[in-house]
Specification:
The protein is an alpha+beta fold and 634 residues long. It contains 20 helices and 25 strands. The strands form 5 sheets. Strands 1, 2, 3, 4, 5, 6 and 7 form a 7-stranded antiparallel beta sheet that branches. A 6-stranded mixed beta sheet has the order 19-20-18-23-24-25, with helices on both faces. It has a 5-stranded antiparallel beta sheet with strand order 9-8-12-11-10. The relative contact order is 0.05.
Amino acid sequence: MGAGRAFGLRPCAAETRFGAALGSGPKETMGKRTAQDRRHRAARRTGLRPAPARLWHSVAESLPAPMCVLDGEARIASHNHAWRDLALQNGGSPGFVHDGASYADACERMGARLAGAGPGQEPFRRLLQAVVSGRCTEFELELGVGRGVPRWRVHARACALRGSHGLIVIEHVVRAPSESHLREQDGRFARLAESMPGAMYQLEVREQTRRFRYVSPAVQDLFEVSAEAVSADADVLWNQVLELDRGGGLGALAHGAPDAPRELDFRVRTPSGVEKWIHSIARPHRDAEGALSWIGVFSDITARRKAEALLAASEETHRTLFETVAQGVVYQDLHGRITAANPSALRILGLSLDQLQGRTSIDPRWRAIREDGSDFPGPEHPAMVALRTRAPVRDVLMGVCRPDGTRVWILVNAIRIDRDGLRAHVYASFVYITERVVLSMELRRQATTDFTTGIANRRSFMERLEQELERVRRHPKISSAVASLDIDHFKLVNDTFGHSAGDAVLQHFAAVLEREVRGSDFVARTGGEEFSILLPETTPAQALSLAERLRRAGASQPALHQGRELSITVSIGIARIEPADTSTDEPLARADLAMYEAKRAGRGAIRFAASPTAEGQVAASRVGCAPPCARRVR
């Protein structure tokens, strides 16, 4: 007999159409009132007299079915412990499970929903309005009783409580899932297990025994044994685990803290002889009897392990090369800061890793120069150019200073490495070529320098004269000149005092020239006792003035050889570099002719050659003679 009939309750008429929507109303805050206080207040509010309320409550507490009484606003007027336990076990909270609380709020806190509710169904609160108004007497809810799976159904029957001024008694009957529902759940789980990339399992561990309570069919692809065979005998899998990995394989699941998840990698050899890497991830679970089970997944990670091994081997190879290669290698971030360097780089640059890290290519402490001795600006360093242009930079020669002040020469390559379109870093390598550069510079110096005097030789002078002639051709208004100088009676010095004395005279006169000329002038020894001077940006008057200063300096500063003073006089010929000159031989030939004319005039004199197109005489100077004594030289 239902609880309603035991108390003479009159069942409400069934109603298939629901009434107006029900609002939950404001929630009543619970203070520190006792359960009895709450029941008495609810009774006074709803018209349930204290004596019948105590009688109903005492009887309802003895019934196993969860029951509660609702007032006309669908609030809980009274309830028994069975209903309270049902609510609390399914997510309800004490703040919503008490007399005076909203029945709809309490059910929604439990995650309850109407059984079979679909998109077109009436909402639960509207159904509840129909129950309170007597138009509906029964309904069903779905909830996960005990937080289990699958969801259970709760059948609710509503009856009016006689003499209670509209109170409704709701009796809840908890029903287990139907067989069809369980089969549907099992089928859904089986399809889920089959679609997973690994084999799902539940391994039960009891003392020294282990048994697979469940294993998905995918175990056949992993271990070449059927799920049925594994379920019958767990050792079918255990025996495939390699001996070296058994300590960390399936056997490890039987040890350790049972509340900690376990993740394992181990190798197996299948019946066909194939060796595989298997990954297992499992979580512990204890049933109602306390038995320990591991629920997890087996996955084949053989391909991943092989890729990791190849990657590790590649990284080891690159690390070995990085550490042992003779070339210096540095990595710089997108701001040009050095982040890593190999031992060769530290040795070449004379810095420790701590000193090198964080330094940029534009750091002035490098004091970088080019091969010709000019400054090497920081933004033009290979690493900075590679960062800016995204193009590789190769074979850039630069000299940098070590902390001890010595200069080393390196040949630099730089390439920017991008990942996913983003700038990652710059890889720069360099070779130590100091000896090669120094030797090359020495060979170049020897090829362009006169061995006896140490100044430029004829080859170097002709190159500079060629450059100046090209400049004059581009800018005809520029006035430049060339001077030819010949030491008078030089053969007599060699014949009288020996070739060592002649060398001393040559060296002394070269020093006089370099001391007296301007910084823009270029002095060279172009013959035995012949010297040439390139005079850029020089007018005829300026050239004559410089020549006179050189003539007097030579005459007033004798050379010294073995304690003996050797007097020097020099004959000088000057010629302008003309835009019409077709080669460097033409201005040089005019200067030579003027110099020979100076010798014929008595030596120690100066002559300025006429322009090849000029008519009349050109000013000349001679020792002891004023410019009016000058003669035109053709």
